[in-house]
Amino acid sequence: MMKVFLKKLSVLGLLFLGLTCILSFASLHVLRGSGFYKSSFLVNQVPEDRFDYIVIGASDALTTLNTKTIDSMLSVEGVNLAMDDTSFPSHYLMLQHFLSEGKQTKYCVLAASYSAFDFEGAPLSNNDYRFLMYGNRAYVSDYYKQFSGKTANILYYSKWLPVLGVSYYNTEIFYPSLISIVNSNKRNRFDDKGNYTYPVINKPSRMIDFKTAEVAFKNAYVQKIKALCDKNNIKLLCYITPSDSKNAIPKSVDFDIINHSNAVNDHKYFYDETHVNSIGREICSIAFAKNIVQQGIDLKNR
């Protein structure tokens, strides 16, 4: 009786494992064909192959530069590929992903806070699972492999056993895949040009007392991104996003800089300590377009 029981239990276990593997493959397949996350949005919902500029970065890049405003003012074509809760290694990966799709851009706008440009760490980011559906591509697999720890190992070994990543990130992978089955055009909090904004909340007007902070661009991935840009005939433009306390003083570098650390001088235009609201975003986007003209930067890729 015990042998029969164990045999049946083994069969059920194998059936369960097989079913979870099938569901995992299916989830990643559905997301790979959707536009839910920025990685698949770039592949499936960005038909253009040639851009004047792209924006890469984290949530402050995502919510500070409105490519629609910039495009309308300068008669250019851009797309915002920034992803929230990511760091400079993720930005490098996004640029690799963009290039792997055979797409071209004249400028790469690397947007980040003054402190991020000088942060010398290079961690695996919380939202790097959003490239999991492309884990069989060498540049994605190599990206996961360079990190140590449980999460990195799960992401890396999902190349061969997707159930690892899908089960670990079930809320972020499995459930979005169900949404994408119903609507493959559904996007995760960004518009058709990759932009997102925070709402205006009721804050009293209060002018910001800025303190100076030097920016030396110490993050090693700034140079890695610059090298990748140079290799592909892309010009790098570093954009320092608004701060609610610091006026950044950037050191001289061999790439273009637009410094908007003090461009928003009232707390009422900030959603929180590191993100502007929708009014602040328009202030910055308009100022960005004007700075492009004032600094003699020719964005047009034609």
Task: Write a structural description.
This protein has 302 residues and is α/β, with parallel strands linked by helices. It has one domain (32-294): 3-Layer(aba) Sandwich (Rossmann fold). The protein is built from 12 helices and 7 strands. A 5-stranded parallel β-sheet has the order 2-1-3-5-7, sandwiched between helices. The mean pLDDT is 93.
Write the SSE topology.
Layout: H1 2-32, H2 38-44, E1 50-57, H3 59-64, H4 67-74, E2 78-80, H5 88-100, E3 104-112, H6 114-117, H7 138-145, H8 150-157, H9 163-168, H10 170-182, E4 211-215, H11 220-231, E5 235-240, E6 246-250, E7 256-259, H12 278-294
Parallel strand pairs: 1-2, 1-3, 3-5, 4-6, 5-7
Helix pairs in contact: 1-10, 4-12, 5-11, 7-8
The gross shape turns out to be globular
Count of domains: 1
Largest sheet: 5 strands, parallel
Report, as a whole number of angstroms, the end-to-end distance: 77 Å
- What helical percentage do the residues reach? 40-55%
List the total number of helices.
Answer: 12
Identify the CATH class.
Alpha Beta
Overall average residue pLDDT: 93
Structural class: alpha/beta
| Series of secondary-structure elements, N-terminal to C-terminal | HHEHHEHEHHHHHEHEEEH
- Examine the secondary-structure arrangement and name the CATH architecture: 3-Layer(aba) Sandwich
